[in-house]
Design goal:
Number of helices: 3
Strand order of the largest sheet: 1-2-3
Strand content: 15-25%
Order of helices and strands: HHEEEH
Radius of gyration: 12 Å
Number of domains: 1
Shape: globular
GO molecular function: mRNA binding
Number of strands: 3
Structural class: alpha+beta
Largest sheet: 3 strands, antiparallel
CATH class: Alpha Beta
Distance between the termini: 12 Å
Protein name: Type II toxin-antitoxin system HicA family toxin
CATH architecture: 2-Layer Sandwich
């Protein structure tokens, strides 16, 4: 994990939830920690991290994830033992 990805990880765990986390940054962070991104139908994606999985929709037309999506990704990372 490089320094930019670590900053994204710290931002993911901020309270209150950041409204500026972009999907591309979360995707790169997930891949850096050994996760898998699977494309579903339409804008659906599945994030697989260790033995956990999360299904969400990629944000569009905006690039930023919604707060409930950020909380779900945060929970996935926490359950996978990946915290800053």
């Amino acid at each position: 994990m490089n320094s930019k990805q670590y900053k994204v990880l710290k931002k993911l765990f901020e309270n209150p939830v950041s409204a500026t986390l972009r999907w591309t940054d979360i995707k790169q962070l997930t891949l850096a920690v050994g996760g898998i991104i699977k494309q579903g139908g339409g804008s659906r994606i599945r994030i697989v991290l260790r033995d956990r999985a999360l299904n969400i929709h990629t944000p569009h037309p905006r690039k930023e994830l919604k707060p409930y999506q950020i909380r779900a990704v945060r929970r996935l990372f926490k359950e996978g033992g990946i915290i800053p």
